Amino acid sequence: MIDDRDRDLDDGDLGLDERAPPGGARTVPVRPGLPRSRYDWSRAELGQLLADEPGYRVDQVWEGLHHHGTEPEAWSNLPMALRARLAAELTPALEPAAESVSDDGQTVKWLWTLADGRQIESVLMRYPDRATVCVSSQAGCAMACSFCATGQAGFDRHLSVGEMVEQVVRARTRAAADGQRLSNVVFMGMGEPFANFDRTWTAVERMHGDLGLSARHLTLSTVGVVPGIRRLAEAAIPVNLAVSLHLANDAERDALVPINRRYPLAVLAEACHDYVEATHRRLSFEWALIDGTNDTDRHATELADYARPLRAHVNLIALNPTAGYAVRGTPPAGVRAFADRLATLGVNATVRRTRGTDIDAACGQLRASRTPPTDIALPGPSLMP
Ligand code: SF4
Fold first, then answer.
1. CA–CA dist 216, 130 (Å, integer)
2. Which of 62, 211, 318, 336 is the most buried (most CB within 10 A)?
3. Residue 222, ligand 1, Cβ within 6 A
């Protein structure tokens, strides 16, 4: 039985030793040995690639990639020979391995195979007024949250900028085919975005500046990597911050969310406070309700005491059921009672509907269901709005 919940996380696990120089170039290297995929190219690099072409070709290619999101062969404003060359040079990062659509057709989940054979997931969630894609920032995750399929399967590697941006472009194309505009991106798929901060942030800049997504509709989520929150507070694009809290006392959170041992709740609260002061953005706490684990009146009181001084909004969702994990999500009546209790205690809370339980839509579940059985427990969370 592999169980790394009790080990301490070091900086290598967290990716905190990969910080780029401040104000550095927006070219963040892909992992050595991996091919550079089409959205890994920066404008400057495309300029070098197209040095033998007129200068405006870079703009045309950039627009083809980001505005149209189509294959190079479809860029009819370019000569045929150049299109063929670009098709060979600008290879996609994501190879579809599986796709699941929920019974109501509103949720689509993809399992992608990357160039090195790693697999990641992304989920498109459609609502009457918006379409949101939940993207992965790492293949696997080192955070080892005990209720999470991805965490239990361990860490493979950080995703590149291009691997993150392409998840959004693919989801945008799918939403558009159904007549809907992709409006929101949440980094709540596989991985801890702040453990891969530089690439994640460059991907955010691309989504904001080149894919045209509003900062208000971009949400970075963390399980509590405090240095990442502090860096986000200094960042130029005012995206939303969601902290996956799940417990508001250190003793229990240490066991469920091991990063809490590194950054306990008081340290996390201080960073959240400073983030809100610096950005004036609303902070939200994600709380996956787990039957008998974090859904009692006492837990609601602890959460309220923690959230109120930070004026944080709370998003509640019942943990997605997962084969291989003994604990289940809080039943609907318990979810309502928890939300009512928070309201009584002066905390704003929204109950999120679990999306796509019929398609393994929680992070890590689809990959787990397609992985040959191992002796690793494979529970899974559902933190997605
Ligand atoms: S819940 Fe998120 S941070 Fe925790 S192990 Fe799973 S993917 Fe990583």
1. 13
2. 318
3. no
CB 40 within 8 A of CB 93: yes
Helices (H), ranges, the chain: 11-14, 43-49, 56-63, 80-89, 149-153, 161-177, 197-209, 226-234, 250-256, 259-262, 265-279, 297-307, 332-344, 365-369
Whether 27 has a pLDDT exceeding 60, the answer reads: no
Q: How far is the CA of 365 from the centre of ligand 1 (A)?
A: 12
Domain ranges of the chain: 38-89, 93-369
Which are the contacts of 104, defined by CB distance < 8 A and separation ≥ 6?
none
Q: Are the beta carbons of 170 and 122 closer than 8 angstroms?
A: yes
Instruction: Note the Cα 65 to chain centre separation in Å.
Output: 22
Q: Which residues belong to the active site?
A: 121, 363
Q: Would the CB of 151 count as within 6 Å of ligand 1?
A: yes
- For the CA of 141, the closest atom of ligand 1 is 8
Q: Name the architecture of domain 93-369.
A: Alpha-Beta Barrel (3.20)
Q: What is the pLDDT of residues 121-152, one digit of tens each?
A: 999 999 988 999 999 999 999 999 988 888 88
- Fold for 38-89, please state it: DNA polymerase; domain 1 (1.10.150)
pLDDT in tens, 82-100: 999 999 999 999 999 999 9
* CA 189–ligand 1 middle distance (angstroms): 8
Record the pTM.
0.87
